[in-house]
Specification:
Elements: H1 10-16, E1 25-29, E2 33-35, H2 39-51, E3 56-60, E4 79-80, E5 83-84, E6 99-102, E7 105-108, E8 113-117, H3 118-125, H4 130-133, H5 137-143, H6 149-154, E9 160-164, E10 169-171, H7 178-181, E11 190-197, E12 205-215, E13 221-226, E14 229-234, H8 238-245
Parallel strand pairs: 3-9, 11-12, 12-13
Antiparallel strand pairs: 1-8, 2-10, 3-8, 4-5, 6-7, 13-14
């Protein structure tokens, strides 16, 4: 039987890593994603990724011919074998896909799971963090700023490999995603919580975790009341929300 130890606190993880074997593995996944089908194919891709070690391994979903991104986003940049394209929107193809072909594999938006040896991640971090290179764990976590792993490691590394999966997944880390993963009403709306909609509301997400919301005359909008805060934005603007939150 294979046993797993989950260490969610970074300092605890760093302290325990040396005792978990000579080559402990570290897997990074998107905080919110949905694998709809073919779970066994996902597990198979994970196994294939292990054979690509000691590279850092990214996993893609299938498409035409290998990955078909369905929405233009400005999250993780397009990647190819061992290289990242510039961050931001890549040039759109006629069918709206964002792709980069490298080594016969088409890789695009949809790479949000990475597997690698814990030591390999640490070695890739060391050049930018002297405290980590010196073995000063407390100093490292005291000085490091929160930053996405694609920025800290994966955009700089020369040791990135790609495994093309045969499973499909969906990044559901935005309010718009509710329109894809929840069954809408007859007018295309997704409603959660204490909400009343007029019959002219179309293709919108309306969510309330507390107060009653009444909505009239909106189309293609997101309206959220959660944790004492209110958000109103058009659908398709999820990538701008992070920028807005930084100014609050």
């Amino acid at each position: 039987m294979t046993h797993a130890l989950y260490l969610l606190d970074p300092e605890a993880g760093a302290a325990w890593a040396p005792f978990l074997g000579a080559r402990p593995l570290c897997e990074l996944r998107a905080g919110a994603h949905l694998i709809r089908e073919r779970w066994e194919a996902f597990v198979g891709a994970e196994a294939a990724g292990i054979f690509a070690l000691p590279h850092l391994v990214g996993f893609t979903e299938p498409g035409v011919p290998a990955v078909t991104p369905r929405r233009p986003v400005t999250g993780p940049a397009v990647i190819g074998s061992s290289t990242f394209a510039p961050r931001g929107l890549a040039p759109a193809l006629p069918d709206g896909a964002f792709r980069l072909t490298c080594g016969g594999i088409t890789v695009g938006w949809g790479v949000a799971r990475f597997l690698g040896e814990a030591g390999a991640y640490a070695r890739e971090l060391k050049p930018g963090w002297p405290a980590l290179a010196a073995g000063d764990v407390a100093g490292f976590f005291g000085a490091v700023r929160p930053v996405a792993v694609d920025v800290a490691v994966l955009e700089r590394t020369k040791r990135l490999a790609v495994v093309a999966g045969t499973f499909r997944w969906d990044d559901i880390g935005s309010w718009d995603a509710l329109l894809r993963i929840r069954k809408p009403d007859a007018r295309g709306n997704v409603v959660v919580g204490n909400v009343t909609l007029a019959d002219d509301v179309r293709r919108s997400v309306v969510w309330s975790d507390s107060e009653h919301l009444a909505v009239i005359g909106l189309e293609d909008m997101v309206v959220v009341r959660a944790n004492g805060h209110t958000l109103v934005m058009p659908t398709g603007r999820a990538e701008r929300l992070k920028q807005l939150v930084q100014h609050l």
